[in-house]
Amino acid sequence: GDAFPDPLPAYTLDRPFYCCPGQGTATVLDASGAVIGTVDEECANCYSLWCPLKFYLKDSTGAVKYEIVGPSGCKVGCCQDISCRKTNLAFDVSDSVKPGSSVASIQQMPSQCWRMCCTMADDYYIDFGEDTLQEDRALLLAFVFFLDFGYFSHNGNGGE
Q: Which of 26, 89, 132, 144 could cross-link 39 (Cys pair, CB 3.0–4.6 Å)?
């Protein structure tokens, strides 16, 4: 037999197909299939490239729990090649009950140019607040996957 049995998923991220970044929702489910919450992206389009990217993390009832604001779509790479970017892209996570209060921060770290050319790996740093619940951490991790897939992952087929 196998030395390690097939692991059960702790969480599942369900994201239906969307043709481009700037639209979409991802649902986060626990191991039993119960909805923990969603990651929702505020619509971004060609006219809002100069505006900051904005996302909402909602709880299982659909109430907004956290708002995440990042750099403009243009800084993220919609207008320019970021393969050799030298600065972090910061995403601030604030509590929707206490607007402006930071509960976590997420940074997309620049990779060295040789690594960007040779691998599909991206580096992220998440600073969770001390009182962050396990379900909230799962939502924040789901956001990182959502962000990475939508804005930073390219498979060599024109982003398709």
A: 26
Distance of CA 88 to the CA centre of its chain: 15
DSSP 68-106: EEEEEHIIIIISS--TT--SPEEEEEEESSSTT-EEEEE
| pLDDT tens sequence across 21-78 | 556 788 999 989 999 999 998 765 544 555 667 889 999 999 999 998 887 655 455 5
Q: How far apart are CA 85 and CA 88, in angstroms?
A: 8
The whole-angstrom separation of Cα 53 and Cα 30 is: 27
The answer to whether 60 and 43 have CB atoms below 8 angstroms apart is no
- C-beta of residue 128 within 8 angstroms of C-beta of residue 142: no
